Structures are given as structure tokens and as C-alpha cells.
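Hello,

Our lab assistant flagged a job as stuck in the queue for most of the afternoon. It eventually completed. Since we weren't sure the result was trustworthy after the delay, we are filing this so someone can double-check. Below is the sequence as submitted and the structure that was eventually returned. Let us know if re-running is recommended.
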Amino acid sequence: MERTEAQLRDKLLQAEFEPELVEQAIAYVKSYGYLDDERYVRNYIEVRQSQKSRRQLEQELQYRKGVPKELIQKVYEELEPADEKVLIRRLLEKKYYDPQTCEERERQRLIASLLRKGFQMRDILDVMKNE
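-- returned structure --
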């Protein structure tokens, strides 16, 4: 199971290893290429970008996995961006969204749900308008 540097550090500190030993262990595994945050971020994004918004992935990596925001931005610049409108369309289809029969209250609920998932309002409205 692959981990980020922050996750490994936390795990070793929870196991009550001395902080100096933790840093030595991290340096050791990094020297052999077993620990590479950039590779981890790239794989994480490539696997999940067809299911989650960019903002949601950034938040997961930064706050749950402990990856620096700068590294996430760097990897995103190198990767081919996913078309979030396709993902929004897929999520709306999954919810059986039909613009002709959808009531305003239901439409607002769907928009709120997509916003919570990290999608941009303009992308959501574009997709809903073009359906």
C-alpha cells in the first residue's frame, strides 16, 4: 500500500518512534524511491479524475493525505485536464435529470449537490442548459 510522506510520518509517530528515527526512516525509503509524493499524487489524480472534481481531489490530497498544495498544482499542470462537464453530465444522468420535467426545487437540489462535490457553478449551469 502506497502512502504519502506525511502519512508515513504520522503512522510512525503514532507508533511512538522517536522523531529523529522517523526522519531517518523517511529519508532512507525516499532514497530508494519507495516514497515519492509526486508519483502518489499523479496516480491518485489519474485514477480518480473521472469520478471526482478537481477541487474535491485537491482537498482530499491536501487535507487527508498531507500533500503540499504546490505539489498538487504542479502535477495538475503536467497532466491533461479532465473535462468536468462530462462528469457533471454523467452524474446528472445517474440522477435521471430531465430539464423538461424537472421542477425548480429538484433542480436547485441537484445544483447544490454538484457544488458540494466541488464543481464550478458555470460548468453546472452550462451542462444543465445544454441538456
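-- support follow-up --
The delay was a queue issue, not a problem with the job. The result is valid. Residues 19-31 form the longest helix (13 residues). The CA atoms of residues 2 and 34 lie 8 Å apart.
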